[in-house]
Amino acid sequence: MRKRTEFDIEISVGHVCAFLDVKRESPIYQEVLEELTEMLPTAYEKIKPVALLAFGDLEGYKIEADGRLVKEALYGILSIGREIGEWSTRFFAEGDYLKGMLADAIADDYLFQMDVALQKHVVEMCREKGRGIAGRAEAPQDIPMSIQKKAYDATEARKEGIEIRESYMYDPVKTICQVYLLDDNIKKYHPEHDCGKCNNLACKQRKLSTVWMVVETGGRKRSIQARKSDSLLKTLQENDIFLPAVCAGKGNCGKCRVRFLEGALEPSKENEKYFTEEELDQGWRLACKAYPDQECRILLEDGEEGFLVLADERTEETKGQNLKGEYGIAVDIGTTTIAMQLVELSGGTVADVYTTINRQRSYGADVISRIEAANSGKGEKLQRIILSDLKKGILTLTKNGSVKVSRMVISANTTMVHLLMGYSCEALGISPFTAVNLETIHISGGELFETEWKEIQEIEVTLCPGISTYVGGDIIAGLFSLEFGKREKVSILIDLGTNGEMAIGNRERILVASTAAGPAFEGGNIICGTGSIPGAVCGLTIEGEKVYLETIGGVKPVGICGTGVVETVYELLKEEVLDETGRMAQPWFKEGFLLSQEGEIRFYQKDVREIQLAKSAVCAGVETLLLKYGVSYEEIEHIYIAGGFGCQMDIHKAVGIGLFPAECEEKIEAVGNTSLRGAVRYLLNPQGKEETERLVKIAEEVRLSDCREFQELYMEHMCFGDDSTLN
Amino acid sequence: MSKIQRIADAVEMGTAKQVAVLVMKALNEGCDPTEILNRGMVDAMGVVGEKYRSNEIFVPEMLAAARAMKKGVEILRPYLATGKSASAGKMILGTVAGDLHDIGKNLVGMMIESVGFEVIDLGIDVPIEKFIKAVEANPDAILVGCSALLTTTKRSLRETVVALNSQPFRSRIKIMVGGAPITQAFADEIGADGYSENAAEAAELAKRLAGLV
Questions:
Q1: Do A145 and B150 touch (CB under 8 A)?
Q2: Which residue, A300, A327, A353, sits at the end of a domain?
Q3: What ipTM score was computed for the predicted complex, to two decimals?
Q4: What is the signed CA dihedral for A372, A377, A381, A387, rounded to 10 degrees?
Q5: Partner residue facing A167 (CB), from B67, B70, B98
Q6: Could B64 and A173 be called an inter-chain contact, meaning their C-beta atoms sit closer than 8 Å?
Q7: How many domains is chain A partitioned into structurally?
């Protein structure tokens, strides 16, 4: 028997946070870190480690390793004493639940580290005895719980004050038992835990080796190798296959759907929310929550091919003709979509349009998650994605270089510019949120793209200047397209994209702000939400139990897009399924409101909350800007709604749910993709540079998050107003 | 925004100090203490539980919110009419005999308390007689919660529930069970009234069993 009480273990804050799901983006992250740091010195005092090791037989147990019956074992009992457990219990009793849970996680981390630290002594003992270690058995999955009694007796744990119950549970609770299976093969030592055999799939410490898989998409097959500890989503990203992942892989958007043709995994809990039993049986899983541990074959849908990106109208008569003369390309790089137009420079006609999904979406729907991805080493990858998307657009528009393009103007938000230019995003993500560069950028196609295509190398590329980290060149382009720099009367521009930017002003002075309204108005973060793809529910009316749907392209419904989301909330309010606070009446509160049997499309309580947060951010943002600008609604000439969403939206319904103030319904106008239109105008207007830079100069950012008025208005607009507007 | 709403927001955000201050202010300005408790805190915890169940937040945020509510309740308690602090009812809770697991049961207690119940926590390794005595000693108890975390203590859970089922007070209580190896099927088999998979759902279950929703 051997006993060890000296362990040089440092409790890992990272592990403790991971055990408890303390995420960096959590509002209480800092607080938890501080409390944890404060607790550590006491924790070390309370932890009294002891490890007991003793050889013994396995009589009465039938356990095999490598096909042979194992007869001998080395038993280990590891304990950290009673005090730490009592400490946790006391916190709970006092109502400090967070500290109670932290104390418990600290204890677990210490025990796990003890287990690892002990392994070299285990190997040493076996080597001395002339035995190898075939592996270890864990109760109750590999061996009955009663083995804990055998280990208890063999190690004489009673002498250490450890007790055992009839249930074979040890007291103190923070005591674990190890059974190392001995073997004659002295070249083999496997005292470690085998994650591959362990049932605890949700374990935050799961470590696994690699596995091969075949990925099929659009009739093509590819073999890729994956680390077993990586999610399928991450593996696919590393292999340049980008699934949409609105929530950046947290398992709560349900968008990264894949189908296992072979080797399907047991569905984790998250899957049950997004798939029917039948779909699960067919192998449908969320890629972000799938950790393939065996060879498998996976089918990817290419269902977003038909994504409708607003790129305004194309001039029909030039289509298909030989394009002579000089052309330019206007580009809008949105967080979700990319839109490009080929423009004839002398006459200004739009000759062709190209739109695509921003494949960076695989790293999260909003700019924050992209910044985080860039800061954790994915920056180059994100740059490569956007460059290749743009290049593909250029080659498509110019028919592989046969149309002469001399200039390209890009309008994009500040994060997109940083990712495109390969700038560091470190400072974008942390206060005071400074950008590397907000000026107008001139760069040659050759420098930007590193391409063989001479036609691309010679393009002069311009990026519109931005105002701040959160209000970028896309808003400047929008203001430029709407001629804010020439207006006498005050108007408002609201971009209903993911970042919810807005501006108010005239030629004298402009105030801008970003509300981070989130992707709800683009169908993101909505359980049955989807982009503007064929089959997306874009309009509906509800009368009692009856739901009348309208989908994009008039085809079978597949999900709800932004306009559909707004209309759904409006209709549910009208039908009093939702009350003023946004609470769904029973039975819908639990199971969601069924919009369509076909496609099993439901609208859930969580979706309503998502919209409440988003709409109140927009509405409070507008009102805060009005306050700061010192004008009232009556003095506003126009309210322009930009963004892909803006074009087909029913303004009356949007006002009805409180997205926009009812006072000025008749002043609201949906204007489509103003960022792209601004880029076109810049291409054609010799004053483009001067005018956009002047707009930057007269614009001033209001940081809504620092603004007390905003916080109050935000809370005020959270509920739905009186129902006078719902008719 | 109303004062009550402000308290609810602070509870949701888990800012304990702010909750304490806001409750004091609300009391000073003459808000009804029961209203503060039910609308400001219990309802807010309902929202928190809902967010947890939909994966919007994780355990730590839930813990912080419950802790914030607890702070508020401490301030509020002297103002509440005796016995009124547990508007929803009384619950007896414990981990069954032979089982020393504490944390899961504590989380359940915390969530059930936060939706308005008074929880009498018998602790861990609770013998059957102790459960029975506790129900007898608390004629106003309407719920009994039993937890078992080991395959080897499932039997103990079964014995506990079977024993409770044969008591004369059985008709006035509802029994809920939970723990890692427990399933709905097992709960049905041993004659418990309800099973839930996690603490947030246990709170919903408690409300349902108490006939509150």
A1: yes
A2: A300
A3: 0.90
A4: 70
A5: B98
A6: no
A7: 3
